[in-house]
């Protein structure tokens, strides 16, 4: 149950931002006369190609931190419940082993069958708990994806960015990024402001 939530979601967000290549303010035909290399060079120098550091974004995005806390609390609660059930089962097994010599054959058979059923139930509970956690985590990641993606689309349109790339030390899809093109701070501020408004509703 103790999954590396942060690293898993960092990978997901990295893929998200890499996929969120945005060209909102590029009217058809506006750059058609330029060659591919000329267009790229111009876009890079005029700031219409920018990037977000996904590590910094996750470290400072309040919604992500709240999401992480919620998932960790659910994982801890489920782990504690599973541990309690496992301990209770182990006590029953130990009790049976202690008293087996004084039991009749029918009592031993009945107790062993009951313990076998409990062991199977415990295994199913563990499996269902893990599946439930995985589903919750997937839903939370989808919410994160939508929040960041929707914000970036609107922000890029407002600022005139044609491409928003992502950079992460752990998963560098970009080998070099000029710091002057980084917009992580403004994206984090915008996301946090939007999340704060949501919480007040």
TrEMBL record:
<feature type="coiled-coil region">
    <location>
        <begin position="79"/>
        <end position="128"/>
    </location>
</feature>
<keyword id="KW-0732">Signal</keyword>
<dbReference type="Pfam" id="PF03938">
    <property type="entry name" value="OmpH"/>
</dbReference>
<comment type="similarity">
    <text>Belongs to the Skp family.</text>
</comment>
<protein>
    <recommendedName>
        <fullName>OmpH family outer membrane protein</fullName>
    </recommendedName>
</protein>
<dbReference type="InterPro" id="IPR024930">
    <property type="entry name" value="Skp_dom_sf"/>
</dbReference>
<feature type="signal peptide">
    <location>
        <begin position="1"/>
        <end position="28"/>
    </location>
</feature>
<dbReference type="InterPro" id="IPR005632">
    <property type="entry name" value="Chaperone_Skp"/>
</dbReference>
<keyword id="KW-0175">Coiled coil</keyword>
